[in-house]
Amino acid sequence: MRITRFFISVLTLATAAFAADLTGNWLVKQESPDGNVRETYFDLKQDGTSINGVTRSAQFGERKIESGTIDAEGNVTLVAAPPNNRKGNGQKIQAKFVNGALRVTMTGRPGTQPEEVTASRAAAGAGIIERIPPPALKKVPYNGLAKTPPMGWNSWNKFAGRVTQEDVKGMADAIVSSGMKKAGYIYVNIDDTWEGMRDANGNITTNKKFPDMKGLADYVHSKGLKLGIYSSPGPKTCAGYEGSYGHELQDAKQYAAWGIDYLKYDWCSAGRVYKPEDEQAVYQKMGEALQATGRPIVYSLCQYGAVDVWKWGPEVSGNLWRTTGDIRDTWDSMSKIGFDQGRLAEYAAPGHWNDPDMLEIGNGGMTNDEYKVHMSLWSLLSAPLLAGNDLRSASKEILDILTNAEVIAIDQDPAGNQATRATQNGDLEVWVKELHDGSKAVGLFNLGAAAADISVKWGDVKIQSGKHKLRDLWAHKEVKAEADGYSANVPSHGVVLIRIAK
Ligand code: GLA
To answer: What pTM value is reported for the model?
Structure first.
């Protein structure tokens, strides 16, 4: 008798739970300490104990619920498919649905614990992002900027999402006091995570880490430097902050009003609303918006080298375009990226540069010889030189690498040629760059594990045999060559960089 009653009450409880219908569109809002709010929608349909539907977020797009269940106590388990085009296991999401209230356990920002957040009921269809058709293709005129590769500093490699207004001010001070400005580093670029939400008129605001962007721009300008900023053509940036999707003109005007001089425009979530074949038109849209402001703003395209950006970057008035995925502060990452760039040499020209990503020099993950390879190779490649370290505490050795005027002159050579590989013998490579005055910069690179002699024959670098004037740009001295070429002993993961006068 007692047992029967127990079963009846369990049954009643269970029916109650199942009668509670989870069906509908739910919104979960997560606010981070800087005031950024992430919105995730759960558009669910309950059928008995099983649940299906989708989750939507501007950053990760729409993801199918591959499986979902609710038990008698209202414990909900959902498995959401990986974001579009990504392989891998679905993501398990736990929630609790009791007395009509849904509480979802959400993973937070990297390094934070999951948090339980109460969802609210949302209108049907809320969270769906409509595709705005990109404009018809046309050529955006060259903006006249970046006649030599841009030089400056960017916050991402060192600070990532932790960068604040005070850091940027401090960096502007350090650029001047360390001699970086004198060496040519002018742009102070804020990367992702400065963005706040949009106000009632759709204007982009700054978050708590950047209370006064106009004041910051004025400060940076007062030092004779220029200020750069970052956004995405997608609804969200790579770090999940507001992107410029549907607000391109409005954002460009805001940047100009603040006094911004450089924009890095990073694809990120744009792939949720656009197709790869839309990329040129999408980047054109911001190129036009920037020019419509009348303010000179360097335009940096960042879409990791997809759809042969080097072929159409100039058409959208891009001054530089990333050619690779993100660099890391390791020899493997830097050397893999750098030594693979020769194939793009023909696309570099004054005003339009291949960008193999920002410098890691001084961030601690490589030896000084490796950082010299980084600096030499990027200069031979006519790459933008955007330091990515904390200049307030940089050592003399690191500053000597970053500010080597003879090496920077190779990068900033007005002809704007990009080096190519002249010879390769196992781990030993010789790269050559033609300079405007008929002289040549030649890099002897040792990618191997032990010091080695590297020799270059004049024929390899298209120089006639005979007497030539040679200068070693790291040793800062003239060096003697043979009649048919030059040889040097090069340390492991090291370089000898020479300039051969015409
Ligand atoms: C992408 C870019 C990086 C950086 C981050 C910011 O990964 O390639 O350079 O801008 O986004 O979120």
So the answer is: 0.94
